[in-house]
Amino acid sequence: MSITHVELELAREPAHPYGNRDYTYDLYLPIRTDGRLDGDRARCCDGHCRFRCQKPDGCKAHGTIRLSGGDRLELDYGNTGGGGEVSLPGKDVPLRPGQLLPIADDDGEAHLFQVLSMRQEWSGPGEAEAERWLAAGSPNPMPADDLG
Question: Within 13 Å of residue 27, how many CA atoms lie on the same side as its CB?
Answer without folding.
Answer: 30
